[in-house]
């Protein structure tokens, strides 16, 4: 599998729907390149961290110099899943919020036990599972959020404050709050019907126009190139940027990558995986969204791993108890996906890797944040044991921690990311820094191999405590 697409987009701004979709950063639109993020999705519990897996975590030597982490064997006693921790057994394929897991409260395996510090933190992971009885504070917060949502004009500051503590799962609250926090719904409730109708109609138009390959004369995607569209002398092996053949093969490769990634999205969750009609329809929705996004963003296109960011949004919106909202979950998810990714888009652009806004700069900011809050730990990791933050933080940042925590816990983390007035990028860096601080004793006692293994397979952690520590960093 190729790790990169090397073709520069030459027609980034010429599509009539680009501006309407608000997808591209204006100052970068003319220089963007496509890229692919390779990530380890499902690995055997006994598999070694091979050179291929190294490339998956760090993409390419050109992205981060010639450094790459040496082979590190994964612990054989800990099965590794796409995004579910070991406390869900390997044989189970249950939906994370359905209540079929039972009481799955995260066990704090960190150095800093909860103590009294979590009293002001977010709801525990158990609160996200239907089987666990909701805590009194969750019920109170749910009532407060519902009261805020019932206002004619919602106070977004107050809603952000309430959501930052964790959104209780139930009554479709998270679906509505996420749409508000991402700016998909306006604060004025009277505008919701017209805004939803407009956006849903717009997405329908996107699908009608873009899910049919423009080079196929409106035939299905897997059709043939029209001879009338191929100029005389055009060679199928031409690598020219304007070559119709070159563009065709690039697009075909992207479509195939999307298909593969959608098929392996959360294989442990029935909602996304299996032979049921429901699962297949959900896979088709994910595929549609990613293809439309790629076509509207020729400078970024599709980056492998975007499916993992898309999945939580679609899951929440599709499970909205409001039947009309659930029916239009695909359209709503598309626009919210665009809004969420807009805060992180520079991390996906290869052309910007070495710029002040690219992924390398973002990882450097995480390193400096750790140095500010725990210089001893920073020095031990980066100076003594030589654990380059690029070896573990790249996946943390680009996939918004969806691969480091179980599905329910990642939703709680996302509540905080979306609600923080500082923006999701800054909040994400604080959470990543808190992840390091929480396991500091194990890291300080470890060498290169053990520390890399720990950070690439982050242990189950009390999410309430994690977010509490991250919030303390913001207040400092």
Automatic annotation (TrEMBL):
Residues 100-109 have a biased composition (Polar residues). InterPro entries: Rab-GAP-TBC_dom (IPR000195), Rab-GAP_TBC_sf (IPR035969). This is Rab-GAP TBC domain-containing protein. Residues 88-125 are annotated as: Disordered. Residues 168-421 form the Rab-GAP TBC domain. SMART domains: TBC (SM00164). PANTHER family: TBC1 DOMAIN FAMILY MEMBER 13, TBC1 DOMAIN FAMILY MEMBER GTPASE-ACTIVATING PROTEIN. Residues 115-125 have a biased composition (Low complexity).
């Amino acid at each position: 599998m190729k790790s990169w697409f090397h073709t520069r987009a030459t027609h980034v701004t010429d599509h009539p729907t680009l501006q309407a979709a608000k997808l591209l950063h204006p100052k970068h639109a003319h220089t963007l390149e496509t890229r692919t993020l390779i990530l380890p999705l499902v690995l055997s519990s006994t598999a070694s961290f091979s050179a291929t897996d190294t490339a998956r975590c760090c993409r390419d030597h050109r992205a981060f110099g010639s450094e790459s982490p040496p082979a590190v064997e994964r612990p054989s006693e800990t099965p590794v899943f796409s995004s579910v921790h070991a406390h869900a057994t390997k044989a189970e394929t249950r939906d994370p919020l359905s209540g079929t897991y039972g009481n799955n409260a995260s066990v704090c395996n960190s150095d800093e036990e909860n103590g009294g510090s979590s009293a002001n933190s977010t709801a525990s992971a158990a609160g996200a599972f239907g089987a666990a009885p909701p805590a009194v504070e969750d019920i109170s917060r749910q009532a407060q959020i519902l009261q805020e949502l019932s206002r004619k004009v919602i106070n977004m500051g107050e809603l952000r404050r309430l959501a930052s503590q964790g959104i209780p799962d139930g009554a479709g609250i998270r679906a509505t709050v996420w749409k508000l926090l991402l700016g998909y719904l306006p604060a004025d409730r009277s505008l919701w019907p017209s805004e939803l109708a407009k956006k849903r109609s717009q997405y329908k138009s996107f699908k009608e126009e873009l899910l049919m390959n423009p080079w196929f004369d409106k035939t299905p995607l897997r059709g043939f190139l029209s001879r009338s569209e191929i100029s005389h002398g055009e060679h199928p092996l031409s690598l020219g940027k304007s070559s119709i053949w070159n563009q065709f093969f690039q697009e075909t490769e992207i479509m195939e990558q999307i298909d593969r990634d959608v098929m392996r999205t959360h294989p442990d969750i029935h909602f996304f995986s299996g032979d049921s009609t429901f699962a297949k329809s959900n896979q088709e929705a994910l595929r549609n969204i990613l293809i439309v996004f790629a076509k509207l963003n020729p400078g970024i296109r599709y980056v492998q791993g975007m499916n993992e960011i898309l999945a939580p949004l679609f899951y929440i919106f599709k499970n909205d108890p409001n039947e009309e909202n659930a029916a239009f979950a695909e359209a709503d998810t598309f626009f919210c996906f665009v809004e969420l990714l807009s805060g992180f888009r520079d991390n996906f652009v290869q052309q910007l890797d070495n710029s002040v806004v690219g992924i390398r700069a973002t990882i450097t900011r995480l390193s400096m944040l750790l140095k500010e809050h725990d210089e001893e730990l920073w020095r031990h990791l980066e100076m003594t044991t030589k654990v380059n933050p690029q070896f573990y933080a790249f996946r943390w940042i680009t996939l918004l921690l969806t691969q480091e925590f179980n599905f329910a816990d990642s939703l709680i983390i996302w509540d905080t990311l979306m609600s923080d007035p500082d923006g999701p990028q800054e909040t994400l860096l604080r959470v990543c820094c808190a992840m390091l601080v929480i396991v500091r004793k194990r890291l300080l006692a470890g060498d290169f191999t053990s520390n890399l293994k720990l950070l690439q397979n982050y242990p189950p952690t009390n999410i309430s405590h994690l977010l509490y520590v991250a919030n303390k960093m913001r207040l400092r």
